[in-house]
């Protein structure tokens, strides 16, 4: 029995691979290496380079490696990019996920964990946002993920198949042992960008919009440590294998920080007063979104270990320094 991790050479996927290996699981990674790196895939996980929509490859891999569960991370994740290229996002995130789900059904893989997103809620009526909140994505990215959730729901109703869709809030930080971290080139996510600026990889960074109706005028997000996030997936896997049935749950801590809070924390932890420019709002950004984390805790028995912004930033910074040393070699 082995677990297939799509996108396992990427940021969250590479942490998932470590989490599974740490629990003694046999792991196979499927990744086309468009944004991920082969060196990010931990030994002894096996790397298959290819596309999730290549059904021949996927089904052969499932049969050959005795896959009993799929954890599906592969996809595109940048909100403004999805606004500019909606059809690219619907292809990558929705159409290709459909092919992967079909391969799972055809080969009898009954457990499927999907990386969904808080972007399915758009700007919620109230925070913290529960799973029952109306689904009103404000970007093609959010819609592309919501459509995959709906395909999973309907597939589970029709076949011997159960899924867990985890709706991620803002994933950040790095493995505390620094075995992996976020290595994406041209990353756009706030903590990564701020850490790159603090370590001198960028001359300055921008704050996208400071006239939002929030405490300090900048958008508010629920930043969750990647190691806590992948642990929720491992618990979801155990639950599915035990016959727990399908589940959809938020993955966040239930508290929000503004863009300026994050930048201040990165400045404080790094001891660097880097340049920050105020810029126009970025298309597709929701004003404020914070998770209600109750379902993840009650259904999965999730106990976050790294719910501390300074700790998250310190792991992200240490990874950035390690990457800089690595790139100089
Ligand atoms: N943000 C920013 N400057 C950056 C990157 C992000 O001001 O260089 C803001 C962005 O506009 C949003 C918040 O930080 O309000 C979180 O953005 P991110 O891209 O990290 O995650 P998202 O919530 O879009 O998934």
TrEMBL record:
State which Enzyme Commission number(s) the record gives.
Answer: 5.1.3.2
The reaction(s) catalysed by this protein are: UDP-alpha-D-glucose = UDP-alpha-D-galactose
Please state the pathway this protein functions in, per its UniProt record.
Answer: Carbohydrate metabolism; galactose metabolism
Location of the NAD-dependent epimerase/dehydratase domain: 3-250
Instruction: Name a GO molecular-function annotation.
Output: UDP-glucose 4-epimerase activity
Q: Is the Plastid keyword given for this protein?
A: no
What UniProt keywords are attached to this protein's entry?
Carbohydrate metabolism, Isomerase, NAD
Going by the entry's taxonomy, the superkingdom of the source organism is recorded as Bacteria
Its required cofactor(s), as named, are: NAD(+)
Checking NCBIfam families in the record gives: galE
Which family is this protein grouped under?
A: Belongs to the NAD(P)-dependent epimerase/dehydratase family.
Question: Quaternary structure?
Answer: Homodimer.
The molecule here is called UDP-glucose 4-epimerase
Ranked from the top, the taxonomy reads: Bacteria, Pseudomonadati, Pseudomonadota, Alphaproteobacteria, Hyphomicrobiales
